[in-house]
Amino acid sequence: MENTSDRETVDTFPTLDTLDTLDTVPLLSRPHGSRAFQRQAVASIGVATGAISMGLALGWSSPAVHQLQFLDNLNTTQIGPISDKQAAWVGSLVTLGAFISVPLAGHLMERYGRRITIILACLPMILGWVSIATSTGMLWMYIGRLLTGVALSLYSVVVPVYIGEIASTHLRGTLSSLFQLHCVAGLVIMYGVGVDVCWRYLAYGAIALPCVTVVIMLTLHETPNWLVKNGRFEEARRVLIHFRDTEDVSDELDELIGSHQTKQTEVVKKPIYKDNAALKVIFYMLVMMMTNQLCGINVVLTFTVSIFHTAGVSIRPQLAGLCVGLVMFLVTIIATQTIRRVNRRPLLFFSLFFCSLSMISFGFYFHISPGPSYSWVPIVCLVLFILSFSLGLGPLCMVLVGDFSLPRIASLAGTIAALTNWGFAFLTTFAYSDMQQVFGLAGTFWFYGACSAAGAVFVW
What torsion, rounded to 10 degrees, do the Cα atoms 177, 197, 119, 39 define? Predict the structure, then answer.
């Protein structure tokens, strides 16, 4: 006899054509007190300081690698010049640390809570920056980059969860966008300050932010969702009263309790490898996350200044890198407010199409080497690439993880997506110098363009 529930699962599985906005937390919108938005916004901004630390860790390598490789007048330390292979390690180890710590994030936040996990994440971030700032050789710099990567991965998982679980339904979209905005803001800050500051002092300055995050988290509440899961119902009620600014939270609390009890009674009917709908979800996650990194985004963000230096742009490479960062920040503001109001498929297609166009054009610039008169071309190519990525592929990858994931495999799909994303981020960044030697800069950027084009074909 045919299993009706299985058939319905497959029939209703979302596709790139029909995706609608799906909120992941089952709280209904209700009238709240006048201070509800203020309290939720302050908590969300405070937690999102972890996202700024993420951006600082990801953005540090762009000015630092250039200073270490080319020994400009900002590098007053004894370290350098470093080789291309050493630069690859400096740039990629942060993503390797993130890859390693992916399995830890879910376990820590379920066992110890979202709030404590964010505090714990600050420890490797602080130790990592101290290791980098005080390093007298490459080994301690490598260790520091690895540690900041571990913290970065924890932030990337737990911070959005915390914001999503304290936010009211009608505020969740707006408040959740703070995570990505703060992350890009961290990148821009590091690009901007790195124009005239030595890499060592950049690291010293970055130590302060996770310390601020610790202080903020000590003053904030745990999320009501985690408290309910651990049977602390009265405490969950008090937290809801605080964030909703009203005593009338009984219905919302009952929904949380009911949702938790429903999840506890759910039974997996068949293993993943026999579940066609689940396999389809995992396949989509793998393809989208691979495309997200194979388009070359992490290489561009990690080696922005060095790329512009090699391309011989008409302005200081550091200023060109700052321009790219500012474009990314401004476009992210627009994208976070509009991304859920548009059809996913055409947006993804055109995003990947223009990413491909910009990378292929950049490859031709290196192939032809037209001379100083065309030194503006690299800036235009990378600005177009960042613009296209930030308006579509970048934010949509995270949205699609939530939209595609079936409840019974949400945790598994999220873990696979994160491992794929950070794993390919490490591979593309580490392989960048080797690809330059084998294929040249033209061939390397053509490869990124071809991967973007393949992603566009897949989406179409």
Answer: -40
